[in-house]
Amino acid sequence: MMRKTQLLGLLFILTIAYSCKKSDSTDTDGEWERVSDFEGVPRSGAFSFTIDNKAYVGGGYDGTNRLQDVWTFDPNLNNWYKKASFPGVARTNSVGFSINGIGYVGTGSDGNVALKDFYSYNPDADAWTKIADFPGDARYGAVAFTLDGRGYVGCGIDQNSYKDFYAYDPGTNTWSQTTSIPGTKRTNAFAFVIGNKAYVGGGLNNGLYNSDFFSYDATTDTWTQLEDLTRTSAYTYSIGRQSAGAFTIGNFGYLALGNNGVSLGDLWKYHPIEDYWEAMDVFEGSTRSEAVSFSLNNIGYIATGRTGSTRFDDAWKYDPDGIAPDGED
Fold first, then answer.
1. 201-220 pLDDT, tens per residue?
2. Is 22 among the domain residues?
3. How far apart are CA 152 and CA 124, in angstroms?
4. I need a surface site. Which of 71, 136, 200, 219 has the fewest CB within 10 A?
5. Is 214 helix (H, G, I), strand (E, B) or coil?
6. Residues with Cβ < 8 Å from 147, sequence gap 6 or more?
7. What pTM value is reported for the model?
C-alpha cells in the first residue's frame, strides 16, 4: 500500500510539472531582435517621429558635436536612408511628433541655451519649413504626443523645471496653452498614446525619480492620476525613471530602458483597463538611456542612446507575440 501511494503521488507531481511546463511554453513576454544598425554616427538625445509606417530619426549628440542629420527607417526593407538635414540649430533633447503625414520637431538645447523654435517636415518633398515658435519658455527634456489632430508639448527644464503644456494646431499654425499636468514638475518624462488618451509619467524632479503617472483626455482637457509607478500590493514593482523609451502596440503601452541612477535594460507593459504594469522580455542590447523609441506595424523599436559617455548606433525591434527559442529567456 505504501509503495502504491508513493507511486500515485509521484505521478501526480510529474503531471503537474508537465502541465506547468506546457502552459509556460504557450505564454510569451515577447522577443527582441536586432535590426539594421542606425546608419548615422552613434548618438544620444535624438528626436524621432513616424509617418506612413516609417520612422524618422535625427539630431542628438555624439559626445563632441550636436547634430542635424536625419535618417528614415523602412521596416519592410530593414534599412536606413538619409533625408534632408534639420534646418534649425543643431540640438539635443528636443521633441518630435507627427500629425496627418507631417513631422514636427522643436525645443531642445544647443549645449549653451535652451530653444523654442519649431519646424515641420514634409516627407513627400523631403523638405523642412519653420513654423510658429513654441509659446512657453525655451526648454529641453520636454515630452510630446499627438491627440485629435493636435500636437502636445510640455514639461522639461531650463533655468526652471516645468509642468505646463501647450497644443499645436497645424491648420492655423498656432499654439494654445492647455491644462498643466498635476503633481510635480518633470524633466525627461515618458509619454505614449492608447486610443484617445495620452499617458505621461516618470522623469526627474529635484534629484528624485518621479513615480506618479497620469492620463490626459484632450476632449475635456483633463488629467487623471493613475496607479503610481511604485506599487507594493497585488503586483509589486518600482519603475520610476528618466530618459526612457516608450511606445504603443495595440491597446498597450510599453516603457523601456532609461536611468534611475543606473542604466536600465528592462521592459514593462502597461495594461490601461486594469491600470498596472507587467514585466516583459529584458532588452537584449546594452542598457541605455536617451534612446529613440517608436512603433511600426505593431512592433516596437529602440535605437541609439547612451550609457555614461558610450553612445550607440544599434537598433532593435520588439515583437510582443514573439517567443524566445528554447533555452533563452
1. 999 999 999 999 999 999 99
2. no
3. 24
4. 219
5. strand
6. 193, 196, 197, 198, 216, 218
7. 0.90
